[in-house]
Design goal:
Helix content: 40-55%
Number of strands: 19
Strand order of the largest sheet: 6-7-5-8-9-4-10-19
CATH topology of the largest domain: Rossmann fold
Strand content: 15-25%
Number of domains: 3
Structural class: alpha/beta
Largest sheet: 8 strands, mixed
CATH superfamily of the largest domain: P-loop containing nucleotide triphosphate hydrolases
Distance between the termini: 51 Å
Shape: globular
Number of helices: 18
C-alpha cells in the first residue's frame, strides 16, 4: 500500500481510495467495501474497538463478522501512520488456513495492505513476509495460533505495535467448544507477548458457558468485555424437521425439494459412503450435482468449491468438510440427510442458506436409526485415557516399527484388527494439536516431540468431555421433537432471548445452562 502523507492530515491510499484519520466507520464501509449500511450490532462493536475497549461478537455465519475488525484496522492504521511507515498492526488469529488466502486476496483487491503467514507458504516465502512485517509493512496480518510456537515469529511480531488483536473462531479457545484447538488456550500468553492490545473475539456459535470460558482464556475479567450477540433471528429461513424411515423416503423428499427449489443448494451427509449412495440415486433421476468430502484430494476439493461458488444453480452433496469459506448469497435450501452431531454444527450449516434475504428452507430429514451413527462418531472422537497412553507409548518406544510398517500396523496394535474403529485418526490429530507429535500420516512418518499432556491421561476429564458431547447430540434430538418455535429453541440453547440481539456486559453470576 502506498502511503500518501502530509504534515496536517495523514492519509493512505487503498487503490484509488484515500483514507485519512478523520474518516468514520460509515465512510470506510461505503468507500472501501461498497456497502451502504451496517447490519445489526456491527457499528456498535466497531465503535467499541475504536474507543480502545474489548468486545466479543457472536454473529451468524455470513453476516459480516470480519468487518468488525477490518474497518477498525483501516481506521487505526490511518490514525497511527507516521512520516516513514505505518507501524501499527491488526493481528488476526484464525485456525482456518484454507480461508486466509481468500480473505487476504479480497482485502488486497480493495487496496488494503494485508498478508497471511502459515504452513502453506514455503520457507522462502515465510522469511520474506517475516522481513516485511519487521519493516513495518501490512495493516492486517492473519496467522494461526500455532504460529506462536515459532520463536522467529515472536521475535518479529514484538517489533510491531499491535493496536488490535482479532481472535476469529473464538469458540476454539474453549475446551468445551465444538472445535477445540489446544493452542488457543495459550491466548492469554500470546496477548501478553504482544502487549495486551485491545482484543476482539468473534464466533458464530457459543453457549453462555463457552462465552465465559473464552473471556477467561483471554486473560480478562468479564466486566472488561462487552458482548454483541446477534442470535439467529433471520426471518427468511424456514426451519423444518421431517421424520422419515429409510433411504427411499429421504430420496423422495430430496427429489421433491429439489424440484421446488432449482437454485443453489447443499445436502449434508455424515458418512462419505452414504453420500456416494445418494449421489448414485440422484444421478439415476437425472439430478445434476457436485460432490465434496474429505477423501477428495485438495485440488479436486478446490475445483468443486470454486464451481459451486462461481456458477449458478449447483446442488452439492457434502460432508461437514464443506462449509468454511462458503459465502454464497443465493443458497435456496440446506438439507441435512442425517442428524448432525451438535446444535453448534447444525446452527452453522443452516446459516449458509438465504444470505440474500430471500426465503430459504433448512430441512432436517430425521431417521431415528441415524442416531447410532452419531453415537459411533462420538466414540471415535473421544478416545479414553488408556487409549492415549497406549498410543503414546507405541509411538515413543517402538519408533522403528512404527516408521517401517505405517498407519495400518499402528491401527492393528491398538484396535485388534477392527477396521471400523476410527479413534486413531482422532488421537493423532489431538496429539498433533497439543504439539506432542510431528510429521505426516500420508506417507506415515510420525515422531514424538513432547510429553503426553496430563489431561489426555485423565479418565475423569475425558469422560466429562464425552458426556458433554452426548448432551449436545441430545439437544438435537430434543430440537427434532420440539413442536413449537424452533428458532426460539435455538436461541434458548445459546442463552439468548428470542427475537432480540444483545449488547451488554457479561453477567456477574454464573452462566445459565442451556434449557435443553
Amino acid at each position: 500500500m502506498s502511503m500518501l502523507l502530509n504534515h496536517s492530515t495523514p492519509t493512505y491510499s487503498t487503490g484509488a481510495i484515500s483514507i485519512n484519520k478523520h474518516m468514520d466507520p460509515d465512510s470506510v464501509l461505503n468507500r472501501v467495501f461498497g456497502h451502504v449500511g451496517f447490519r445489526g450490532n456491527q457499528l456498535q462493536a466497531i465503535e467499541r474497538i475504536l474507543s480502545q475497549q474489548h468486545a466479543m461478537v457472536i454473529m451468524p455465519t455470513g453476516m459480516g463478522k470480519s468487518l468488525c475488525y477490518q474497518i477498525p484496522a483501516i481506521i487505526l492504521a490511518s490514525q497511527n501512520a507516521s512520516r516513514d511507515q505505518a507501524r501499527g498492526l491488526t493481528l488476526v488469529i484464525s485456525p482456518l488456513i484454507a480461508l486466509m488466502k481468500d480473505q487476504v486476496d479480497t482485502l488486497q483487491d480493495r487496496g488494503i495492505s494485508a498478508a497471511f503467514i502459515n504452513s502453506s507458504l514455503t520457507r522462502k516465502q515465510r522469511e520474506k513476509r517475516y522481513s516485511a512485517v519487521a519493516r513495518g509493512h501490512y495493516q492486517i496480518l492473519y496467522v494461526t495460533p500455532e504460529r506462536f510456537r515459532k520463536s522467529e515469529f515472536i521475535e518479529i511480531i514484538q517489533k510491531r505495535t499491535i493496536h488490535l488483536l482479532a481472535v476469529d473462531e473464538a469458540h476454539c479457545i474453549s475446551e468445551w467448544g465444538h472445535d477445540f484447538r489446544p493452542d488457543y488456550t495459550r491466548m492469554k500468553e500470546f496477548r501478553k507477548l504482544i502487549g495486551n492490545p485491545v482484543t476482539l473475539a468473534l464466533t458464530a456459535t457459543a453457549t453462555p458457558e463457552v462465552q465465559q470460558d473464552i473471556v477467561q482464556q483471554l486473560g480478562m475479567q468479564e466486566k472488561e468485555i462487552t458482548l454483541f450477540h446477534e442470535g439467529i433471528d433471520r426471518p427468511n429461513l424456514n426451519l423444518k424437521v421431517i421424520e422419515v424411515w429409510g433411504e427411499e423416503e429421504k430420496l423422495t423428499h430430496m427429489l421433491r425439494i429439489r424440484k421446488e427449489h432449482p437454485g443453489s443448494a447443499i445436502i449434508y451427509f455424515t458418512l462419505i459412503k452414504t453420500l456416494h449412495q445418494f449421489s448414485d440415486y440422484l444421478q439415476s433421476h437425472d439430478i445434476e450435482h457436485l460432490r465434496y468430502h474429505g477423501d477428495l484430494d485438495r485440488i479436486e476439493r478446490r475445483r468443486v468449491q470454486d464451481q459451486f461458488m462461481k456458477e449458478p444453480n449447483h446442488l452439492v452433496l457434502a460432508t461437514n468438510a464443506f462449509g468454511m469459506g462458503i459465502d454464497k448469497e443465493d443458497i435456496r435450501f440446506v438439507i441435512h440427510a442425517d442428524i448432525p452431531g451438535s446444535m453448534e454444527s447444525y446452527y452453522q450449516e443452516i446459516g449458509r442458506s438465504g444470505r440474500d434475504g430471500k426465503p430459504s428452507d433448512c430441512i432436517l430429514l430425521y431417521d431415528e436409526r441415524d442416531l447410532a451413527t452419531q453415537m459411533e462418531f462420538l466414540k471415535w472422537s473421544n478416545p479414553d485415557a488408556e487409549y492415549y497412553v497406549r498410543l503414546y507409548d507405541l509411538l515413543k518406544h517402538d519408533e522403528e516399527r512404527v516408521s517401517a510398517y505405517g498407519l495400518e500396523w499402528v491401527r492393528e496394535q491398538l484396535h485388534f484388527k477392527d477396521p471400523f474403529d476410527h479413534r486413531l485418526e482422532t488421537a493423532l490429530s489431538i496429539l498433533d494439536r497439543f504439539d506432542v507429535i510431528k510429521g505426516t500420516q500420508d506417507p506415515f512418518h510420525i515422531r514424538v516431540i513432547g510429553d503426553l499432556p496430563e489431561v489426555l491421561g485423565n479418565p475423569s476429564y475425558l469422560e466429562t468431555k464425552h458426556q458433554r458431547d452426548l448432551h449436545k447430540l441430545y439437544a438435537l434430538v430434543q430440537y427434532v421433537k420440539h413442536s413449537d418455535n424452533r428458532k426460539k429453541f435455538i436461541h434458548d440453547y445459546f442463552g439468548l432471548p428470542y427475537g432480540t440481539s444483545k449488547t451488554c456486559p457479561f453477567p456477574e453470576d454464573k452462566p445459565v445452562e442451556p434449557s435443553c
